[in-house]
Known about the structure:
Blueprint: H1 16-26, H2 29-42, E1 46-48, E2 63-64, E3 96-97, H3 102-110, H4 117-128, H5 140-149, H6 157-167, H7 180-188, H8 195-206, H9 208-212, H10 216-223, H11 227-238, E4 256-257, E5 263-268, E6 271-275, E7 284-286, H12 288-298, H13 303-343, H14 345-350, H15 361-368, H16 372-379, E8 383-386, E9 389-392, E10 400-402, E11 408-410, H17 411-423, H18 433-442, H19 449-458
Parallel strand pairs: 5-8
Antiparallel strand pairs: 1-7, 2-7, 3-4, 5-6, 8-9, 10-11
Helix pairs in contact: 1-13, 3-4, 4-6, 7-8, 8-11, 12-13, 13-15, 15-16, 18-19
Amino acid sequence: MLKQSLELKQTQKLSPLQIQTIKLIELPQQELEQRIRKELEENPVLDEDVQPEKEEDEAPREVSLSEYKEDDSIPSYRLRSDNFNTKDERPQYSTFSVKESFTQSLQEQLGYRSLTEHQYAVASFIIGSLDDDGYLRRSIDSIVDDLSFRANVETDEQEVLDMLKIVQEFEPAGVGARDLRECLLLQIRFMKKTPEVVNATKILTNHFNEFTNKHFQKIINRMGISEAELKAAMAKILKLNPSPGGQIDDSYNDQAQQIVPDFVLEYMDGELKLSMPRFSIPELRVNRKYADILLEAANSSEREKKEAAAFVKKKLDSAKWFVEAIKQRHNTLSSTMQAIVDYQHEYFIDGDETNLKPMVLKDIAEKTGFDISTISRVVNSKYIETHFGIYSLKYFFSEGLENQDGEEVSTRELKKALQECVDSENKRKPLTDDELVDRMTAKGYKVARRTIAKYRDQLGIPKARLRKEL
């Protein structure tokens, strides 16, 4: 039997302005500028105000956006963004630094080799198969198959191996290796055969597992060398480059973007002063061609002109929402950052991590009245320049734990104390996690062994056995 029921649901629909604001809040400063340029390109109603001053008898200048007001019939065409001034100095950003491509460098070296066209195609394909760090992590079989199916080049494993050996002779040394051991051996093979180089080669060839696991005594016993000789050999190995591809930036895959801070915090005369630097946002004006359409349509009954006016109104509304969203973004970011500065006031005076209080998104949401999701959007991908360095806003947020006095301390303070314990340990006998718990307890921090292990991993600190040095 079929049943019918009526269910009433209340839903909240975001306005175009709210949607626009949410999207703009997420953008860091440079991306915001790009987004504004995109709006100028896509909204034909808008023009950037670059007009020179006109004489009084010339045609009137293009209409600004600030005087736009809603009308029940055909809207007026004046709307202006007053939140930025075109006379503000626009900083010149050096956004990308592009150097010689890693792949290009290898291809250039390949061009100097005397190879047949077929061999060149195989070697070139190998170069294109390398990872960004210079390693070849694909199997020889897969390269043979891909050469056949993708490049229409018939080859076999032996030819691929022969061409790989040629690539492995290129600079930077170690390129084309299939694992770390091979990478280091490729670099050390051309060194002068001093006793320490000979021992280093033997270690990499015959005792690599013992070396990576720091079983130094086993290496000494098996090779019949002294501790001093092992130290000298290890010094040679540690000078080798485990990531040869990292020496040359790939201009296509590894472009390094410069960080432009969204906020600047200065400490002057005992006071913290927060500002948001001006960026290149143009003053927006209505293109006079579209303003004329509205003027003509205001006193016309022609359908086409009315339709044109409706199109212009839609674009004007879009422009108005966009400019207002920029204002709201500015206010939201400013209020949020000021709340963070107020909350961490003691820390921002000198940048001492021990003064960084536990702080989560909810704390700032309560101070500002914004939603936690809004705070999260503000914090994401934003940076602040202080008198002690440039930091991501995420850096200032951390959970808290109690110390032995029952006071809440930030996890960052605990990590700093843990790092200090490890830095000051005897490297011949590194501290175990249980011993680190005792050291932290002596410093006044109440932490469990599993917490020590978690923080140690987050700090990139290996286990005690792997921190051992001779």
